[in-house]
Amino acid sequence: MDFLTKAYTPGPYVRDVDMVIIHCTRGGNPDPWKELQGTLDYMLDRRNEVSSHYVVDTEGSVIYVVEENNIAWHAGYSNPHSIGIELVQAFLGADFPRRQIVGLASLLASIAHRRWEYAGLNPWTHRGPLALPTWLIGHDATTQGARWGKTDPGPNFPWAALLFYVAYFGRVWGTSPLEGQS
Ligand SMILES: [Zn+2]
User: Is there a contact between 173 and 123 (Cβ–Cβ < 8 Å)?
Assistant: First the structure.
């Protein structure tokens, strides 16, 4: 498979990944298609030294930008042990459509299944007041993001809805907290 950008550090680093970091594009363009185009164009130019493994647009489509076994450039010193996902969101506080959250959730469940369930690890252990899976974090909650004053995905991000859909897709993929409940 061809990937979009040369803006990455070659892997492999499969075993080192312990975090999936959620970002927002915040390019300021109210047209979601232009916001997506602007994000991809920016990542395509290696001189900008910015990339993520995936971008999820407001329709829930997943765009593959950097192969997972390579290191994307999205979170400073967290890069070597994380997968980066950018959500198209033009500006802080803009709504995250449900279909975008569903698209993100299916991607997250796939990553959890491939990386942690296959390795015999339980991807459903959780932490904190939001009960996020231990491997899932917003950029604003990482030590790197906090140090740099990052606000993505921000206070209006629907974590509870996301976790519901992740658990649902986890049941489709294999085991999840919803297993046996139908
Ligand atoms: Zn970010």
Answer: no
